[in-house]
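User: Run a structure prediction on this.
Assistant: Running it now.
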Amino acid sequence: MSNSNMNRLTVLIVDDNKHMITIVKTLLRGFGISHFLEANDAAEAFDLVRSEHIDFIIVDYLMEILDGTDFVRLVRTGDDSPNPFVPIIMLTAYSERSKVIAARDAGVTEFCCKPVTAKELFRKVRSIVNTPRPFVRTSNYFGPDRRRIKSENYRGPERRSEENEASELLTADK
C-alpha cells in the first residue's frame, strides 16, 4: 500500500500516556495516515472497537486494570468483539522474552519496542497492511499464524519452539 492510500486507514491508538499517543500519531501522519481514534485504557478501547470501523490497532502493554494482552484477548475472543481479525501492533518498552511470549500468545500481529523509530513502525504497519497473515484457531489460541518462515525442506512435527517464535516476533521484517 502506498502512502497515498494509507490516508484511508483508521487507527486506534491505546495507551495510558497521552504524550505517547501524540508521538505515535505524529509518526503515522508521516506515513500518510490521518484518521485516528484514541483510548487511554482497554475498556474505553474495546468500546471503540465495538462501535467504530478500525483498520488496525496500536496498543501499549502496561496499562491499569486491563493490560495490553488482556485487551488483545478481548478483541480476539470476546463474545461481543465485532472484528477479531483486526491487526494489532503491540508497542511497548517491556520487551523481555516473557512479555513478548505473552503478547504473542494473546494474538498480537506485530510487536514493536519503545523507543520506536519511524522506520520500525512503518515496517510493522506495512507488514500488516501488505502481507496479512492467515489466522489460526486452536483450543487455546486464536490469532495470526505465528509461523513466518516457511521451509519447503521441513519434515518434523513441530515447526517452532516457543523460544524461536518469540525471537521471530521481535526480529520479523528486520
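Helices lie at 3-6, 18-30, 42-51, 68-77, 97-106, 118-130, 162-171.
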